[in-house]
Every structure is written in C-alpha cells, then in structure tokens.
Amino acid sequence: MANREAQQLDRVIHERIRLGIVSALAANESLSFGELKDLLQATDGNLSVHARKLEEAQYIACTKYFEGRVPRTRYRLTPAGRRAFESYLNHMEALIRVMRRKQG
Description:
Elements: H1 2-7, H2 11-14, H3 16-27, E1 31-32, H4 33-40, H5 44-56, E2 60-67, E3 70-77, H6 79-103
Antiparallel strand pairs: 1-3, 2-3
Helix pairs in contact: 3-5
C-alpha cells in the first residue's frame, strides 16, 4: 500500500523547488520571480528551470511585463496546477497514514 501511494506521487511536483513553487502559489494569488526566489532561496537559473517545468505541465502560468524599464515576471497557479497539488497532498497524506499504521 505504501509503495503504491509513493508511486502515485506526481513527479513533476515532487522535486523540492517545484513543490515549494506550487505550495507558495497555492497560498498566494500570484508571486513575482523575485518573491519566489527569496522564499525558496533558489538561484535565478534553478528557479527558472523548475518554473519552466511547471509551466510545461500547465501547472503554473507566467506573465511577463515591464515596470518602468525593468522586466518583471509573475507566476500564478492554474486550475490544473491546483488540482495536481491537491492530489499530491492527498497521496502524501495516505502515504503518511500507512507508514504511521505500520509503525504503531
């Protein structure tokens, strides 16, 4: 049972930085690249790569714009991303329940 639950975890979300991005966007309407970078203590390149993976999966949407002459990027969670995150959390909860039962 625990192995089955673990195998059902969404590999797109499961990586630490991507899970952090999705979690942060689930708790906020949108966040800028800089806000996510500070929150996750990630490098520009690392955050970009992981955000792009989530965009490709259509879990997050990206908006690029200029504030004066400074380019800005904002991210938000898509409905598909919210469903995937909720499913991920459900699988994690099931996995934790199974493991606690085995220990108790």
